[in-house]
Write a structure and sequence with these properties.
Length: 201
């Protein structure tokens, strides 16, 4: 496993600030937000996913072991890395915690790492923390408790993935496209066409 590129904190924050929506590249939800990378107690933020995959947990465990040998802890990242493994490029950034006006800090990305950290008895996690997000681009999934997360062998049905979404039209138009940061693992939903966003064409 080889680290092809390391992006330091300041550059990563600028990339996150320019993150667009999944199906509307003209909207940047974090453009005027407060963004920082810091260590947060895991019990201070809520997950937004009801499941983890057992094999993904093992992958994260092995990935952490390998990258620790190269000076990077996947549970306490202060930048992003582009990894080459068996000829495949994979990007990794810190788990993303976004402050929601109703529910407080919520984990939007990085559930497997946060779950692994809890399993290992680690109390805090290095996260990319975002606050002051535009009210026009609210967080879509509702948060749940850590105790509600179930380990599966395969991806569960939709009703077991996340709690009910907020009642908003075209939910995919509110998803943040974090894949733009790494340039790999593009979300296929980004190719969708969404005609209406917040009532505007």
């Amino acid at each position: 496993m080889e680290i092809v590129r390391f992006t330091p904190t300041d550059q990563l924050i600028e990339q996150v600030r320019n993150t667009t929506m999944l199906t509307n590249k003209s909207i940047r939800p974090y453009e005027n937000a407060d963004i920082s990378i810091k260590e947060m107690p895991i019990d201070e933020f809520l997950p937004t996913q009801l499941y983890v995959l057992k094999d993904h947990l093992e992958v994260q465990k092995e990935l952490r072991r390998s990258l620790l040998e190269q000076g990077h802890d996947t549970l306490r990242m202060y930048g992003s890395v582009l990894i080459k493994n068996a000829g495949i490029l994979t990007g990794m950034m810190p788990p993303i915690v976004e402050d929601d006006c109703e529910f407080g800090p919520c984990l939007l990305d990085g559930t497997h790492r946060a779950y692994l950290a809890r399993r290992l008895g680690i109390k805090s996690l290095g996260v990319l923390h975002v606050s002051g997000v535009s009210k026009e681009t609210p967080m879509i999934p509702l948060p749940n408790q850590w105790s509600e997360i179930i380990e599966y062998d395969t991806i569960p049905t939709d009703k077991n993935k996340k709690k009910h979404y907020r009642n908003l039209p075209d939910k995919y138009s509110y998803y943040r496209d974090f894949s733009e940061i790494t340039g790999v693992a593009k979300d296929p939903r980004s190719e969708m066409t969404v005609e209406v966003y917040n009532g505007r064409k």
